């Protein structure tokens, strides 16, 4: 199959699994992912916006607006609690703060997953700004103004709290990748809300200073405060959230670590201690590294990654991860027995493949 046909197929897979409410199912065939995440969905919508599918993207952001408004009282109570000096446990935060995943109708999902995450709330604001920029639908900012303002207030109150990372893990830590998403969303909205611009730019600057002062070690960004290891999600600090430039020495050293510790062939692992389904290689993270390569003029390496991602295509689409090089092979069957076969298709994988393919086409 050609790249062009795989691009078309990726778009088709995403559109077929968008719910009537506008939510994108993370993975329709994997029972644990038959939900919608603000983070995953915003990246899916961003990919579609890059290919002119603005109507689908608009429907997703309409769903985000509805979700935030549906849980507005919970958000306001959380903001008030933090401002009053709240200092509870991760378990209590899971109960009292906004969740990360929802049903397609916008209801919270109870379960063992870490629910209190901030990255999705920054990402949906960043994604909305990208949708407006690419589609020209600036009126959406005002249409969604109530939920946008509430999300900004929520991020402003909560950004220094420990919360679960983008992998739903380590809820007792603070994560630079999460703060990059907060930074990206806040900074993006400052450009569209002139009456709040000074406040929002000040908040974004504070987040950036915090990451630069506390989220680095030995000249590179760290997975979490207190955990100096590498994590592929640290690519977010450059792309797309722009907390630092792609050629910033901190970012260059971070990517060098990711290449040395997490890259196997053309496939990127999440982090060295990953045991989820044996700790395989994630096509979406490989696409992220390829995206970074394009922005740094490493086009041949990015193209090789793109071809590798295409080689992982199954009859059902792109998987969440592949098992060519497992970090913890003894854990693979344990996860299969516990939760079934790995997720295929994963809409986030298709989204990041689309981003990389579009970047490569633009570079040519």
From TrEMBL:
GO biological process: carbohydrate metabolic process
Presence of the UniProt keyword Hydrolase in the record: yes
Entries under Pfam families matching the protein: Glyco_hydro_15
Native source species: Brevibacillus aydinogluensis
An annotated Gene Ontology molecular function: hydrolase activity, hydrolyzing O-glycosyl compounds
Keywords: Hydrolase
Top-rank lineage group of the source organism: Bacteria
Keyword Kinase carried by entry: no
Domain GH15-like positions: 14-298
SUPFAM superfamilies: Six-hairpin glycosidases
Protein name: Glycosyl hydrolase
């Amino acid at each position: 199959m050609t790249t062009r046909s795989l691009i078309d197929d990726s778009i088709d897979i995403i559109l077929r699994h968008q719910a009537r409410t506008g939510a994108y199912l993370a993975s329709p065939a994997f029972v644990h992912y038959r939900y919608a995440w603000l983070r995953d969905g915003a990246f899916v919508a961003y990919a579609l916006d890059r290919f002119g599918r603005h109507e689908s993207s608009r429907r997703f952001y309409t769903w985000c607006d509805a979700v935030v408004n549906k849980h507005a009282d919970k958000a306001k109570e959380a903001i008030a609690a933090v401002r009053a000096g709240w200092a509870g446990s991760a378990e209590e935060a899971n109960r009292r703060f906004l969740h990360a995943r929802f049903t397609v109708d916008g209801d919270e999902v109870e379960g063992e997953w870490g629910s209190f995450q901030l990255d999705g709330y920054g990402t949906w604001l960043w994604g909305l700004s990208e949708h407006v920029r690419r589609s020209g639908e600036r009126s959406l900012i005002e249409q969604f103004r109530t939920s946008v303002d509430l999300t900004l207030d929520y991020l402003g109150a909560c950004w220094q709290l420990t919360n679960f990372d983008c992998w739903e893990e380590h809820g007792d830590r603070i994560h630079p990748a999460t703060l990059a998403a907060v930074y990206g969303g806040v900074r993006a909205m400052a450009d569209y809300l002139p009456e709040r611009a000074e406040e929002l730019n000040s908040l974004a600057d504070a987040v950036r200073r915090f990451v630069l002062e506390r989220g680095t070690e030995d000249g590179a960004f760290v997975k979490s405060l207190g955990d100096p290891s590498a994590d592929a999600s640290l690519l977010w600090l450059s792309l797309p959230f722009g907390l630092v430039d792609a050629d910033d020495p901190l970012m260059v050293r971070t990517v060098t670590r990711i290449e040395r510790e997490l890259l196997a062939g053309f496939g990127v692992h999440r982090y060295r201690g990953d045991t989820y389904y044996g700790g395989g290689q994630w096509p979406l993270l490989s696409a992220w590294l390829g995206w970074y390569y394009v922005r740094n003029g490493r086009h041949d390496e990015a193209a090789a990654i793109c071809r590798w991602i295409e080689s992982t295509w199954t009859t059902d689409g792109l998987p969440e991860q592949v098992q060519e090089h497992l970090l913890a092979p003894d854990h693979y069957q344990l996860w299969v027995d516990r939760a079934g076969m790995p997720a295929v298709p994963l809409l986030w994988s298709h989204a990041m493949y689309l981003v990389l393919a579009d970047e490569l086409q633009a570079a040519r």
